[in-house]
Specification:
Elements lengths: L7 E5 L6 H9 L15 E4 L12 H11 L4 H15 L14 H12 L6 E5 L7 H17 L2 E5 L3 H7 L2 E6 L2 E6 L1 H9 L2
Parallel strand pairs: 1-4, 1-5, 2-3, 3-4
Antiparallel strand pairs: 5-6
Helix pairs in contact: 2-3, 2-4, 3-4
């Protein structure tokens, strides 16, 4: 299986079919149990945007923690801190411990940090939708810009509409194996009619 530049690959399958495992394999978290995986390009992952966030640290400190986990250098993060703070709309809360944040504030910060990356290969487990209605529109635009800037997108989803709107190839997984691989319209028709 090969993904070339311009690929927008959707992974479909029931819970436990292997979608998240495939994403983890592509990100290098798992090694293949057979065969091999050759990845050429820097990878960015939006699989768990809250990973590495520390409730006792301030929002600003968490920007550096999450940024480091995303592979950004300290200098690279420093260059983006003000942009992240402005985008997250946290204002003075940025210097307060995360445990004082509402769930929405926490998500806005995690989203703002996670989407400053511009990888060649982007891995996503579902499309991210965060915040209230005003923030959602801004977040949607930023996510679309991120996807447009990547060479290859691989996204696991249960959404027929998302796959048809975003992808130019779909892989249907069942029990860790590829059941079908092809054009979104063909695969979606078979998958959602089962």
């Amino acid at each position: 299986m090969r993904f070339d530049d311009g690929a927008r690959v959707g992974l479909l399958g029931h819970n436990g079919a292997g979608k998240s495992t495939m994403l983890r394999l592509l990100s290098g978290v798992y090694a293949p149990s057979s065969g091999h995986a050759e990845i050429k390009g820097d990878i960015g992952s939006l699989i768990d945007i809250g990973f590495g966030i520390d409730a006792e640290s301030t929002g600003r400190e968490n920007i550096y923690l999450r940024g480091a986990l995303l592979g950004l250098t300290r200098a690279g993060i420093k260059d983006r801190v003000e942009e992240i703070i402005e985008f997250s709309e946290l204002g003075d809360f940025i210097d307060m411990p995360l445990r004082t944040y509402s769930a929405g504030m926490h998500l806005r910060l995690a989203f703002a940090v996670s989407t400053v990356i511009r990888p060649e290969i982007l891995l996503m487990d579902e499309w991210l939708s965060v915040g209230d209605e005003g923030f959602k529109a801004k977040a949607e635009k930023r996510l679309n810009d991120l996807v447009e800037s990547t060479n290859i997108l691989v996204i696991a989803s249960h959404s027929k509409e998302l796959v048809l709107r975003t992808c130019n190839r779909v892989i249907w997984l069942e029990h860790g194996r590829v059941k079908m691989d092809g054009a979104p319209e063909d695969i979606v028709e078979h998958y959602f009619s089962k």
